[in-house]
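note to self: the first set is below, dont mix up w the second
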Amino acid sequence: MQPKNKVVLFDLDGTLINSGLSFLKIVNELKEKEGQSSVDFEIVRKYSSRGATLVLKNSFPDASQEKISSLKSEFLSKYEKIMTSNIVKYDGVDELLDYLAAKKVQWGIVTNKSAMYTMPIIKKLNWHKLTKAIICPEDLKEVKPSPEGIFKGLKLLDGDPKQSYYIGDHQRDIETAHNAGVISIACTYGYHETDPINWNADHLVQKPSDIMEIV
Protein backbone atom coordinates (compact mmCIF):
# COMPACT_ATOMS: atom_id res chain seq x y z
CA MET A 1 0.00 0.00 0.00
CA GLN A 2 1.34 3.41 -1.01
CA PRO A 3 2.40 5.47 2.03
CA LYS A 4 0.45 8.67 2.56
CA ASN A 5 2.00 12.12 2.23
CA LYS A 6 3.24 14.75 4.61
CA VAL A 7 0.90 17.69 3.92
CA VAL A 8 1.04 21.31 5.06
CA LEU A 9 -2.30 23.11 5.36
CA PHE A 10 -2.54 26.84 6.02
CA ASP A 11 -5.08 29.31 7.24
CA LEU A 12 -5.19 32.26 4.79
CA ASP A 13 -5.74 35.68 6.36
CA GLY A 14 -3.15 36.56 8.98
CA THR A 15 -1.07 33.50 8.08
CA LEU A 16 -0.18 33.85 4.40
CA ILE A 17 -1.60 37.27 3.51
CA ASN A 18 -2.03 40.47 5.51
CA SER A 19 -5.54 41.36 4.37
CA GLY A 20 -5.97 43.46 7.52
CA LEU A 21 -4.21 46.30 5.70
CA SER A 22 -7.04 46.40 3.17
CA PHE A 23 -9.57 46.22 6.00
CA LEU A 24 -7.90 49.18 7.73
CA LYS A 25 -8.04 51.28 4.56
CA ILE A 26 -11.76 50.59 4.14
CA VAL A 27 -12.61 51.15 7.81
CA ASN A 28 -10.89 54.54 7.80
CA GLU A 29 -12.68 55.52 4.57
CA LEU A 30 -15.95 54.73 6.36
CA LYS A 31 -14.80 56.59 9.49
CA GLU A 32 -14.02 59.67 7.39
CA LYS A 33 -17.38 59.46 5.65
CA GLU A 34 -19.06 59.37 9.07
CA GLY A 35 -17.03 62.40 10.22
CA GLN A 36 -15.09 60.33 12.75
CA SER A 37 -11.39 60.05 13.55
CA SER A 38 -9.47 57.20 11.96
CA VAL A 39 -8.57 54.07 13.92
CA ASP A 40 -5.13 52.52 14.18
CA PHE A 41 -4.20 49.12 12.78
CA GLU A 42 -4.33 47.32 16.14
CA ILE A 43 -8.13 47.61 16.41
CA VAL A 44 -8.58 46.18 12.92
CA ARG A 45 -5.75 43.63 13.22
CA LYS A 46 -7.12 42.02 16.37
CA TYR A 47 -10.50 41.19 14.82
CA SER A 48 -9.58 40.69 11.16
CA SER A 49 -9.70 36.92 11.58
CA ARG A 50 -13.33 37.01 12.67
CA GLY A 51 -14.98 38.91 9.87
CA ALA A 52 -16.27 42.34 8.94
CA THR A 53 -18.99 42.56 11.60
CA LEU A 54 -16.60 42.30 14.53
CA VAL A 55 -14.06 44.63 12.89
CA LEU A 56 -16.79 47.22 12.43
CA LYS A 57 -18.29 46.80 15.92
CA ASN A 58 -14.90 47.56 17.43
CA SER A 59 -14.13 50.38 15.00
CA PHE A 60 -17.58 51.96 15.52
CA PRO A 61 -18.26 51.09 19.19
CA ASP A 62 -21.23 53.48 19.51
CA ALA A 63 -23.01 52.33 16.34
CA SER A 64 -26.36 50.53 16.52
CA GLN A 65 -26.78 47.04 15.11
CA GLU A 66 -28.71 48.55 12.21
CA LYS A 67 -25.84 50.96 11.51
CA ILE A 68 -23.28 48.13 11.68
CA SER A 69 -25.32 46.19 9.12
CA SER A 70 -25.34 49.21 6.81
CA LEU A 71 -21.59 49.76 7.28
CA LYS A 72 -20.96 46.07 6.62
CA SER A 73 -22.68 46.27 3.24
CA GLU A 74 -20.47 49.23 2.33
CA PHE A 75 -17.39 47.51 3.71
CA LEU A 76 -17.89 44.33 1.68
CA SER A 77 -18.69 46.28 -1.48
CA LYS A 78 -15.46 48.26 -1.10
CA TYR A 79 -13.46 45.13 -0.26
CA GLU A 80 -14.72 43.30 -3.33
CA LYS A 81 -13.39 46.16 -5.47
CA ILE A 82 -9.88 46.28 -3.95
CA MET A 83 -9.24 42.77 -2.61
CA THR A 84 -7.01 41.74 -5.52
CA SER A 85 -5.41 45.11 -6.27
CA ASN A 86 -2.97 45.23 -3.37
CA ILE A 87 -2.48 41.76 -1.91
CA VAL A 88 0.21 41.81 0.77
CA LYS A 89 1.89 38.48 1.43
CA TYR A 90 3.84 38.20 4.65
CA ASP A 91 7.61 38.34 4.14
CA GLY A 92 8.96 34.88 3.46
CA VAL A 93 5.74 33.29 2.15
CA ASP A 94 7.04 32.91 -1.41
CA GLU A 95 10.27 31.37 -0.13
CA LEU A 96 8.28 28.99 2.07
CA LEU A 97 6.09 27.81 -0.81
CA ASP A 98 9.18 27.41 -3.03
CA TYR A 99 10.79 25.35 -0.28
CA LEU A 100 7.76 23.06 -0.03
CA ALA A 101 7.76 22.61 -3.81
CA ALA A 102 11.48 21.78 -3.79
CA LYS A 103 10.89 19.20 -1.04
CA LYS A 104 7.84 17.85 -2.92
CA VAL A 105 5.63 18.57 0.09
CA GLN A 106 2.05 19.21 -0.94
CA TRP A 107 0.20 22.12 0.65
CA GLY A 108 -3.27 23.62 0.73
CA ILE A 109 -5.45 26.22 2.39
CA VAL A 110 -8.34 25.76 4.82
CA THR A 111 -10.05 29.10 5.50
CA ASN A 112 -13.26 30.41 7.02
CA LYS A 113 -13.20 33.18 4.38
CA SER A 114 -16.01 32.87 1.83
CA ALA A 115 -15.05 31.52 -1.59
CA MET A 116 -16.34 34.70 -3.26
CA TYR A 117 -13.50 36.58 -1.56
CA THR A 118 -10.93 33.77 -1.34
CA MET A 119 -10.85 32.51 -4.91
CA PRO A 120 -10.17 35.82 -6.69
CA ILE A 121 -7.17 36.31 -4.39
CA ILE A 122 -5.94 32.75 -4.95
CA LYS A 123 -6.24 33.16 -8.72
CA LYS A 124 -4.52 36.56 -8.67
CA LEU A 125 -1.58 34.92 -6.85
CA ASN A 126 -1.70 31.90 -9.21
CA TRP A 127 -1.85 29.62 -6.18
CA HIS A 128 -4.66 27.62 -7.80
CA LYS A 129 -1.96 26.26 -10.12
CA LEU A 130 0.14 25.11 -7.16
CA THR A 131 -2.47 23.24 -5.10
CA LYS A 132 -5.81 21.53 -5.62
CA ALA A 133 -6.78 21.97 -1.96
CA ILE A 134 -8.36 25.42 -1.45
CA ILE A 135 -11.13 24.81 1.05
CA CYS A 136 -13.70 27.48 1.93
CA PRO A 137 -16.84 27.40 4.12
CA GLU A 138 -19.01 26.65 1.08
CA ASP A 139 -17.17 23.34 0.69
CA LEU A 140 -18.10 22.17 4.19
CA LYS A 141 -20.98 21.43 6.51
CA GLU A 142 -19.08 22.86 9.50
CA VAL A 143 -16.33 25.50 9.58
CA LYS A 144 -13.36 25.76 11.95
CA PRO A 145 -12.88 24.70 14.70
CA SER A 146 -14.57 21.65 13.17
CA PRO A 147 -11.86 19.42 11.68
CA GLU A 148 -13.92 18.82 8.53
CA GLY A 149 -11.88 21.24 6.40
CA ILE A 150 -8.58 19.66 7.42
CA PHE A 151 -9.96 16.19 6.78
CA LYS A 152 -11.05 17.32 3.31
CA GLY A 153 -7.62 18.80 2.61
CA LEU A 154 -5.87 15.63 3.73
CA LYS A 155 -8.14 13.54 1.53
CA LEU A 156 -7.51 15.73 -1.53
CA LEU A 157 -3.75 15.58 -1.02
CA ASP A 158 -3.61 11.98 0.26
CA GLY A 159 -2.18 13.22 3.55
CA ASP A 160 -1.28 11.32 6.67
CA PRO A 161 -2.59 13.26 9.70
CA LYS A 162 0.22 12.03 11.95
CA GLN A 163 2.87 13.73 9.79
CA SER A 164 0.80 16.64 8.45
CA TYR A 165 0.46 20.20 9.74
CA TYR A 166 -2.11 22.94 10.12
CA ILE A 167 -0.76 26.47 10.50
CA GLY A 168 -2.72 29.49 11.69
CA ASP A 169 -2.63 32.79 13.56
CA HIS A 170 -5.74 32.35 15.73
CA GLN A 171 -6.53 30.11 18.70
CA ARG A 172 -9.40 28.63 16.68
CA ASP A 173 -6.85 27.35 14.13
CA ILE A 174 -4.92 25.46 16.79
CA GLU A 175 -8.14 23.99 18.18
CA THR A 176 -8.97 22.88 14.64
CA ALA A 177 -5.59 21.19 14.28
CA HIS A 178 -6.05 19.40 17.61
CA ASN A 179 -9.54 18.28 16.60
CA ALA A 180 -8.15 16.87 13.35
CA GLY A 181 -5.20 15.11 14.98
CA VAL A 182 -2.57 16.95 12.93
CA ILE A 183 0.55 18.80 14.10
CA SER A 184 -0.28 22.41 15.01
CA ILE A 185 1.84 25.47 14.26
CA ALA A 186 0.80 28.81 15.76
CA CYS A 187 1.89 32.08 14.15
CA THR A 188 2.78 34.83 16.61
CA TYR A 189 2.19 37.38 13.84
CA GLY A 190 -1.23 37.85 12.24
CA TYR A 191 -4.59 38.45 13.90
CA HIS A 192 -4.48 36.64 17.24
CA GLU A 193 -6.71 37.99 20.00
CA THR A 194 -4.95 36.16 22.83
CA ASP A 195 -1.31 35.21 23.44
CA PRO A 196 -0.37 32.31 21.11
CA ILE A 197 1.93 30.92 23.77
CA ASN A 198 -1.20 29.83 25.68
CA TRP A 199 -2.79 27.88 22.82
CA ASN A 200 -0.94 24.59 23.43
CA ALA A 201 0.33 24.49 19.85
CA ASP A 202 2.99 21.93 18.98
CA HIS A 203 5.16 24.71 17.51
CA LEU A 204 5.32 28.52 17.57
CA VAL A 205 6.73 30.58 14.70
CA GLN A 206 7.63 34.26 14.58
CA LYS A 207 7.63 34.48 10.77
CA PRO A 208 6.76 32.28 7.77
CA SER A 209 10.38 31.29 7.12
CA ASP A 210 10.50 29.63 10.56
CA ILE A 211 8.06 27.03 9.23
CA MET A 212 10.76 25.63 6.93
CA GLU A 213 12.77 24.51 9.95
CA ILE A 214 9.80 22.55 11.29
CA VAL A 215 8.33 20.80 8.27
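second set (the one i keep forgetting abt)
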Amino acid sequence: MPAETGALSADLRIADQRWESLGDLDALAARVLGHAASQMKSAGEISILMTNDAEMHALNKQWRGFDKPTDVLSFPSDGPEIPGEPVHLGDIALGYETSLTDAEAMGRPFEAHVSHLLIHGFLHLLGYDHIEPEDAKVMEPLEAQILAGLGWPDPYATGPYADGRGED
Protein backbone atom coordinates (compact mmCIF):
# COMPACT_ATOMS: atom_id res chain seq x y z
CA MET A 1 0.00 0.00 0.00
CA PRO A 2 1.47 3.38 -0.88
CA ALA A 3 1.82 5.79 2.01
CA GLU A 4 1.88 9.39 0.81
CA THR A 5 4.08 11.68 2.85
CA GLY A 6 3.94 14.81 0.74
CA ALA A 7 7.36 15.03 -0.86
CA LEU A 8 8.00 11.33 -0.25
CA SER A 9 5.90 8.31 -1.14
CA ALA A 10 6.57 4.96 0.48
CA ASP A 11 5.42 1.61 -0.86
CA LEU A 12 5.10 -0.60 2.21
CA ARG A 13 5.02 -4.40 2.01
CA ILE A 14 4.37 -6.46 5.14
CA ALA A 15 5.89 -9.93 4.74
CA ASP A 16 5.51 -10.87 8.43
CA GLN A 17 2.15 -10.23 10.07
CA ARG A 18 3.73 -9.73 13.52
CA TRP A 19 4.58 -6.19 12.41
CA GLU A 20 0.87 -5.42 12.63
CA SER A 21 1.27 -5.35 16.43
CA LEU A 22 2.31 -1.72 15.81
CA GLY A 23 -1.11 -0.89 14.38
CA ASP A 24 -1.41 1.13 11.18
CA LEU A 25 2.04 0.69 9.64
CA ASP A 26 1.20 2.87 6.64
CA ALA A 27 0.39 5.76 8.99
CA LEU A 28 3.53 5.14 11.07
CA ALA A 29 5.77 5.05 7.99
CA ALA A 30 4.08 8.14 6.52
CA ARG A 31 4.48 10.12 9.75
CA VAL A 32 8.09 9.10 10.40
CA LEU A 33 9.40 9.29 6.85
CA GLY A 34 7.35 12.36 5.97
CA HIS A 35 8.95 14.17 8.89
CA ALA A 36 12.41 12.87 7.94
CA ALA A 37 11.94 13.91 4.29
CA SER A 38 10.78 17.35 5.39
CA GLN A 39 13.77 17.79 7.70
CA MET A 40 16.18 16.62 5.02
CA LYS A 41 14.40 18.59 2.26
CA SER A 42 14.19 15.39 0.26
CA ALA A 43 11.62 14.04 -2.18
CA GLY A 44 11.05 10.85 -4.09
CA GLU A 45 9.80 7.36 -3.50
CA ILE A 46 11.02 4.42 -1.46
CA SER A 47 10.02 0.82 -0.91
CA ILE A 48 9.85 -0.65 2.59
CA LEU A 49 9.84 -4.35 3.42
CA MET A 50 8.69 -5.33 6.90
CA THR A 51 9.94 -8.92 7.18
CA ASN A 52 11.49 -11.43 9.57
CA ASP A 53 14.96 -12.49 10.66
CA ALA A 54 15.16 -15.40 8.21
CA GLU A 55 14.75 -13.08 5.23
CA MET A 56 17.00 -10.42 6.76
CA HIS A 57 19.67 -13.09 7.34
CA ALA A 58 19.51 -14.08 3.67
CA LEU A 59 19.62 -10.44 2.49
CA ASN A 60 22.45 -9.55 4.87
CA LYS A 61 24.49 -12.56 3.71
CA GLN A 62 23.82 -11.93 0.01
CA TRP A 63 24.41 -8.17 -0.07
CA ARG A 64 26.76 -7.47 2.84
CA GLY A 65 28.51 -10.80 3.38
CA PHE A 66 27.35 -11.01 7.02
CA ASP A 67 26.00 -14.45 7.95
CA LYS A 68 23.46 -13.23 10.50
CA PRO A 69 20.15 -11.41 10.70
CA THR A 70 20.07 -7.67 11.29
CA ASP A 71 17.45 -5.07 12.18
CA VAL A 72 17.62 -2.77 9.14
CA LEU A 73 19.13 -2.85 5.68
CA SER A 74 19.14 -0.07 3.10
CA PHE A 75 19.59 -0.42 -0.61
CA PRO A 76 20.11 2.98 -2.27
CA SER A 77 18.89 3.17 -5.85
CA ASP A 78 21.48 3.30 -8.55
CA GLY A 79 18.93 3.61 -11.33
CA PRO A 80 18.77 6.58 -13.67
CA GLU A 81 16.38 9.43 -13.03
CA ILE A 82 13.45 9.46 -15.41
CA PRO A 83 12.33 12.96 -16.41
CA GLY A 84 8.90 13.77 -15.01
CA GLU A 85 8.91 10.78 -12.64
CA PRO A 86 9.64 10.77 -8.89
CA VAL A 87 13.18 9.76 -8.00
CA HIS A 88 13.35 6.24 -6.58
CA LEU A 89 15.63 6.68 -3.56
CA GLY A 90 15.88 2.97 -2.80
CA ASP A 91 14.62 0.23 -0.52
CA ILE A 92 14.61 -0.32 3.25
CA ALA A 93 14.07 -3.71 4.92
CA LEU A 94 13.37 -4.26 8.63
CA GLY A 95 13.55 -7.59 10.46
CA TYR A 96 10.94 -8.20 13.12
CA GLU A 97 12.68 -10.42 15.67
CA THR A 98 15.97 -8.50 15.85
CA SER A 99 14.17 -5.15 15.96
CA LEU A 100 11.89 -6.29 18.79
CA THR A 101 14.71 -7.93 20.76
CA ASP A 102 16.88 -4.81 20.43
CA ALA A 103 14.02 -2.52 21.52
CA GLU A 104 13.38 -4.69 24.57
CA ALA A 105 17.09 -4.88 25.44
CA MET A 106 17.33 -1.07 25.26
CA GLY A 107 14.11 -0.53 27.22
CA ARG A 108 12.69 1.48 24.31
CA PRO A 109 9.10 1.41 23.09
CA PHE A 110 8.93 -0.73 19.95
CA GLU A 111 7.39 2.15 17.98
CA ALA A 112 10.31 4.43 18.96
CA HIS A 113 12.85 1.85 17.86
CA VAL A 114 11.08 1.16 14.56
CA SER A 115 10.86 4.91 13.95
CA HIS A 116 14.61 5.14 14.53
CA LEU A 117 15.29 2.24 12.16
CA LEU A 118 13.17 3.81 9.42
CA ILE A 119 15.00 7.13 9.82
CA HIS A 120 18.36 5.35 9.93
CA GLY A 121 17.55 3.48 6.72
CA PHE A 122 16.22 6.61 5.04
CA LEU A 123 19.42 8.54 5.80
CA HIS A 124 21.45 5.70 4.28
CA LEU A 125 19.35 6.07 1.11
CA LEU A 126 20.35 9.74 1.06
CA GLY A 127 24.04 8.78 1.24
CA TYR A 128 24.74 9.14 4.95
CA ASP A 129 26.87 6.55 6.72
CA HIS A 130 28.30 5.85 10.15
CA ILE A 131 31.08 3.33 9.56
CA GLU A 132 33.81 5.93 10.01
CA PRO A 133 33.67 7.96 13.25
CA GLU A 134 33.68 11.25 11.31
CA ASP A 135 30.62 10.12 9.32
CA ALA A 136 28.83 8.93 12.47
CA LYS A 137 29.33 12.40 13.98
CA VAL A 138 27.18 13.73 11.13
CA MET A 139 24.59 10.95 10.76
CA GLU A 140 23.78 10.22 14.41
CA PRO A 141 22.88 13.81 15.38
CA LEU A 142 20.61 13.97 12.31
CA GLU A 143 18.83 10.81 13.48
CA ALA A 144 18.46 12.25 16.99
CA GLN A 145 17.14 15.58 15.63
CA ILE A 146 14.55 13.89 13.42
CA LEU A 147 13.47 11.57 16.25
CA ALA A 148 13.16 14.53 18.63
CA GLY A 149 10.74 16.16 16.19
CA LEU A 150 8.60 13.03 16.54
CA GLY A 151 8.78 13.15 20.34
CA TRP A 152 11.34 10.35 20.79
CA PRO A 153 14.57 10.69 22.82
CA ASP A 154 18.10 10.54 21.42
CA PRO A 155 18.97 6.83 21.03
CA TYR A 156 22.67 7.64 21.17
CA ALA A 157 22.56 9.48 24.52
CA THR A 158 22.46 6.31 26.63
CA GLY A 159 22.41 2.57 26.17
CA PRO A 160 24.18 0.36 23.65
CA TYR A 161 24.32 3.01 20.91
CA ALA A 162 26.08 5.52 23.17
CA ASP A 163 29.40 3.87 22.33
CA GLY A 164 28.92 4.75 18.67
CA ARG A 165 28.27 1.22 17.47
CA GLY A 166 25.11 2.15 15.52
CA GLU A 167 22.55 -0.31 14.18
CA ASP A 168 24.41 -1.93 11.32
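remember for set 2: DSSP finds five helices and five strands in the chain.
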